UniProtKB/TrEMBL annotation:
The keyword Membrane applies. It comes from Selaginella moellendorffii (Spikemoss). This is Rhodanese domain-containing protein. Gene3D superfamilies: Rhodanese-like domain (3.40.250.10). InterPro entries: Rhodanese-like_dom (IPR001763), Rhodanese-like_dom_sf (IPR036873), STR9 (IPR044615). The lineage of its organism: Eukaryota, Viridiplantae, Streptophyta, Embryophyta, Tracheophyta.
Length: 189
């Protein structure tokens, strides 16, 4: 990232917004933004949902939706070709902008794109919203900022692990405490 872009943590980001007049630009996809976002913020996604219908995209979509989409709840996206223009519609190039995303990767890319386009007062949370302390910012949405990136099966992983662990412990105890019955049930033909 270029030297003119400020890397900040959550506490520094809060000061930029409250004391220095930075506006928050959230560059995450719509699903993450809807789960939780800083209030107020402007949503300008760096990536948009990919609905292209070519065969290569269709194959990648099926693979994505079968793994990352299902397990992590991550949308199948492509770069937003209108990103810079969308930001320019809402902000002048002299505006102070704090770019945010879940892990800090997209907001860093967004800062570079905006700097190349002539924006000069840019900052981003280098570890993303996932590392911001709870209740540091006023938020909107049903989740905490730290959890807005979590969706899909990963959100039930904890409950699944508890159930699976209980089943395995029960099976072990049954095998240990009732070896004769276990052998008759499971090992005799």
């Amino acid at each position: 990232v270029a030297a003119g872009i400020k890397y900040v943590d959550g506490e520094e980001a809060k000061k930029l917004v409250t004391e220095e007049g930075y506006s928050v630009v959230d560059v995450r996809d719509k699903s993450q933004f809807d789960r939780a976002h800083i209030k107020p913020s402007t949503h300008v996604p760096l990536f948009t949902v990919n609905t292209d219908g070519d065969i290569s995209t269709s194959i990648r979509r099926v693979m994505h939706n079968g793994f990352a989409g299902l397990f992590y709840g991550i949308a199948f996206t492509k770069p937003n070709s209108n990103f810079v223009a969308d930001v320019e519609r809402s902000f002048s190039k002299d505006s102070k902008l704090l770019l945010v995303c879940q892990e800090g990767l997209r907001s860093g890319q967004a800062a570079e794109k905006l700097e190349e386009a002539g924006f000069r007062n840019l900052a981003f949370i280098d570890n993303g919203l996932q590392k911001v302390k709870p209740d540091l910012f006023a938020t909107e949405g049903p989740k905490q900022l730290q959890d807005a990136g979590k969706a899909g099966l990963v959100t039930i992983q904890g409950q699944f692990s508890v159930v699976l662990g209980a089943i395995l412990v029960s099976a072990y105890l049954f095998l240990t405490l009732f070896p004769t019955q276990a052998e008759e049930l499971f090992f005799k033909k």
